[in-house]
Design a protein that fits this description.
two-stranded antiparallel ribbon; EC 1.1.1.85 (chains A, B); Isopropylmalate Dehydrogenase; alpha/beta; oxidoreductase (chains A, B); binds 3-isopropylmalic acid; 41% helix; magnesium (chains A, B); 12 helices; 2 domains; homodimer
Chain lengths: 353, 353
């Protein structure tokens, strides 16, 4: 099979972790007789530096033509203290989501047995955690009208959702639940927000089409609590953009495996795969960043974008082996144990596939 | 001193826990030579049942005339599955906040040494946690224009803030930080929201008036993570209404002492004191609910509303004693140990003041 993949390394440690994912993907392709054509493109701070905008049209065209996008991370400290700067890397991210129609962000949270003690939570609270958030990614308060009035003294952000937007996200949620334990939780704030009431009534109306799925409706504040108390009580959760931003990040730290969590953003055109961690500027160029979340994002890509399940499983299994054998970067190393560099971890994975 | 207190017991376990707080407050008043005049009033589901609205005008007048309001909890299961019912207990809460001008919700999260092992988090992560959220309570997306368009197919909620609203909340934050460790964290989403950019620029402009306070600015998703990872790294946090709703609930479960957390809502007129827990319908009438959060809310009231610090300390110290000696309701009891009823705990507190 020929796989056309757009490669958006981005900023900070992005290029380093992407490099290892490419090595592993190429090795898998060789093993399973596929040909991967990687097309690199600029996004984020490096795109601003090079061409003045964070998501250039050329990058967009490359993404649209590709079968999948593998993405590293974006962000640079020079933009951190000025969220109102006219051009910022994050704008590239939002524009990319919107223009690629990436309306569903798929964020799994699961535990690796060998990492469970890294969690801030007690072992008995997280054992067995295996949940997936579907976060709506192209609507809500992120993309509604925003601005100032009264000479700058009043600011507003409008949160808007249409029934169709809720339906397409919820449909993915029901479908995903059907492939798992058939439990779906709709997270909203329907006791206060009209958009949440639209979410709830839309999902309620879809229940009859998926009679096997048990749906629960929980308020976002209650979920923020229960995620810390009993994360393993959840399976598939669907929610709107802003709630998803907050809750998926909260969920990511409970498993103790945050540095390993992959994600996918799927929608109308090409799907995008990326680690959930950021550009980690302090580690840039040091060859110490953990490449496993990006390698596991590539596994997600093989499975979801190309339906190559055996290939995905092969990647996951070698990652598990590396964890068990302690072939890990310093963030995961047991005190006193030898640590490996970013590229050494990648080399080991390739050699042990 | 004569203390005029409006007593809003509310629904569910509200009346039971309020009853114990009244007993303890009366005993303290007697001991310190104060006279308390309690004026009961209806709010929540019980007000809907009695007079058709969740926050009757009469209740509002009683609150406005009082020196402080002591509040139990509201909410009833019959409203739970229909967030679009025309009259709901929560509307009473929002109306009460708005009409009483309760613009700042003060939500401390701290640990009780004897309860630390109840936390889902590991001991070393939470030891020393002592933070306070100031949540803006009368603005933002809760109170902006909301509704439907396109024949009900599109829903919207408008989030609006004025500079003056941010200033009055932030002022309380800076002042509170000055009485504590002089660290203030402004939580926003300034990389996406215009209202957050207004928050950030307003707080930045106030920094010069409090040169001793160190201010940090963090995105809401990052705070949702760090609260679980290093809760003891925070001191005073200020944030807007919806972020505060989510984060204060998240924070409440990390200490393991959720059933004990008091809160205050302060603002333009009378201040209100209430436990952070809800109306816990399943326990209603069983005399098993934990009254300590309400008793500690009364302590907060003595200290903040009446500046009666010795009285507040006396309450806190007897609560600590009850915890140490295991005179607690079933939710806090060590496995196998004797448990006490709601009223027995109250009686014990009164007897040991
Ligand atoms: C950088 C920011 C705009 C972005 C978001 O809020 O969506 C990030 O937090 C994320 O979750 O991918
Ligand atoms: C009941 C609800 C309207 C309320 C809120 O969202 O403010 C509650 O969650 C709270 O935090 O007091």
């Amino acid at each position: 099979m020929k796989l056309n993949i757009a490669l958006l390394a981005g900023d900070g440690i992005g290029p380093e972790v992407i490099n290892e994912a490419v090595k592993v993907s190429d090795a898998i392709a060789k093993k399973f007789n596929h040909e991967i054509v990687w097309t690199p493109a600029l996004t984020g701070a490096c795109a601003i530096d090079a061409v003045g905008v964070p998501y250039p049209d050329e990058t967009h065209e490359i993404c649209m033509k590709a079968d999948a996008v593998l993405f590293g991370a974006i962000g640079h400290p020079k933009y951190d203290n000025d969220p109102s700067a006219p051009v910022r890397p994050e704008q590239g991210l939002l524009l990319m989501r919107k223009k690629l129609g990436l309306f569903a962000n798929v964020r799994p949270t699961f535990t690796f047995p060998s990492l469970i003690d890294n969690s801030p939570l007690k072992r008995e609270r997280i054992e067995g955690t295996d949940l997936v958030f579907l976060r709506e990614l192209t609507g809500g308060i992120y993309f509604g009208e925003k601005g100032r009035k009264d000479g700058g003294e009043t600011a507003f952000d409008n949160c808007v959702y249409t029934r169709a937007e809720v339906q397409r996200l919820a449909k993915k949620g029901f479908e995903l639940a059907m492939t798992r334990s058939k439990k779906l939780c709709c997270v909203d704030k329907a006791n206060v927000l009209e958009t949440s009431r639209l979410w709830r009534e839309t999902v309620q109306a879809m229940e009859k089409d998926y009679p096997e799925v048990t749906v629960s409706y929980e308020f976002v504040d209650a979920v923020a609590m229960r995620l810390v108390q009993w994360p393993n009580s959840y399976d598939v959760l669907i929610t709107e953009n802003l709630f998803g931003d907050i809750l998926t990040d909260e969920a990511s730290v409970i498993s103790g495996s945050m540095g390993l969590m992959p994600s996918a953003s799927v929608g109308e055109h090409t799907s995008l795969y990326e680690p959930i961690h950021g550009s980690y500027p302090q580690a840039t160029g040091l060859n110490i960043a953990n490449p496993l979340a990006t390698v596991l994002s590539a596994a997600m890509m093989f499975e979801d974008a190309f339906k190559l399940t055996a290939e995905a499983e092969a990647i996951r299994s070698v990652v598990n082996k590396s964890l068990e054998q302690g072939i890990v970067t310093e963030d995961l190393a047991v005190k006193g144990a030898k640590t490996y560099s970013t590229s050494e971890v990648g080399d080991w994975l390739v050699a042990n596939l």
